[in-house]
Amino acid sequence: MSAKGTKKKKAGSSWRGIRQSARQVKVSRFAKQRYLKLVCRTVAVAVLLAALGGAAWGAFRLIEEGSKKITSIIPSSPVEIIEVVTDGVIPEEWVLNRIDLPDEIPLMEVDIHAIKNDIERHRQVRRAVVSRRLPNKLQIQMEERMPMMRLAARDTEGRRANLLVAEDGMVYQGVGYNRSFLASLPYISGVQLRREGGGFRRLEGMEPVAELLGLARSEAPDTYSSWKEVSCRDLPLIRIRSDEISEIVFRNEDFSEQLKRLQSLVLYQRREMSGIHYDRVDLSLGRDADVPVSAH
Fold first, then answer.
1. Residue 229, CB half-sphere, CA atoms under 13 Å: how many?
2. What is the rounded distance in angstroms from the CA atom of residue 223 to the CA atom of residue 244?
3. In the chain, what are the domains?
């Protein structure tokens, strides 16, 4: 008969049998102070961020409900005065008819943003500022476009419409201009009108044309007054038809120098005994200007 034996595990064969020892680490007073400062700083930053977040949320809520709060705090008097200020020619009556405020409407109930947008939809107005002036005044300030040329077109019903072209190429029907001023503006040709919304799309490339016409109006008014048509067909070349010269061609640079040369030719032509008439003056060629001459 055989006897069964049991195997003993060797001591130390498991990590649980390993004798462990621990030493207590002493923390210096300086380390404790540095740790406390770090904790305090972290808490302070957290409190500050929470405060900023609360302030931002409060500001958002204030803006969102600002109109209601203002209406409830400020006494609302009916609109008694509407002040219209413009740097152009639009009549006050036109503005009053356009905004058409109800009678006895409280000042704080006037939708100033809607009025601004409605006025600016008329393309003669470049910018409008509408504001309330307590206790009972509504103020409307307008900046208008300056027309530099005119053109004739047909509306959707085939009727003739006289339109104006502003310095920035905006096309619109003018309000408030007198007839003599409109008659002094040259016609524009060589452009194609495209409808957009309730009007026409802005004409591109009008900046040099506006520069030339503005300079001629201020520096050579006698010469400018004879200009009848501006052709933009060959931009950047600008072609002018005047009462005195059938065609004047400008290049898009140094308009002041070209105008001086043109004035010299016009003055020479105007002399009673000169017997000279210029049919065409091409200032785009510089000093070698092509100036065909016919004698009369």
1. 12
2. 9
3. 74-144 (3.10.20.310), 147-295 (3.40.50)
- Cα separation of 240 and 230, whole Å? 5
Handedness of CA 193, 194, 195, 200 (dihedral sign): negative
| Nearest of 255, 226, 244 to residue 280 by alpha carbon | 244
Of 138, 120, 136, 137, the closest CA to residue 128 belongs to 120
211-243 pLDDT tens trace? 999 999 999 999 999 999 999 999 999 999 999
pLDDT tens digits along 170-207: 999 999 999 999 999 999 999 999 988 888 999 999 99
DSSP strands (E only) in 9-90: 81-86
Amino acid at 58: G
Question: pTM, whole model, 2 decimals?
Answer: 0.71
> How many whole angstroms separate alpha carbon 111 and alpha carbon 86?
20
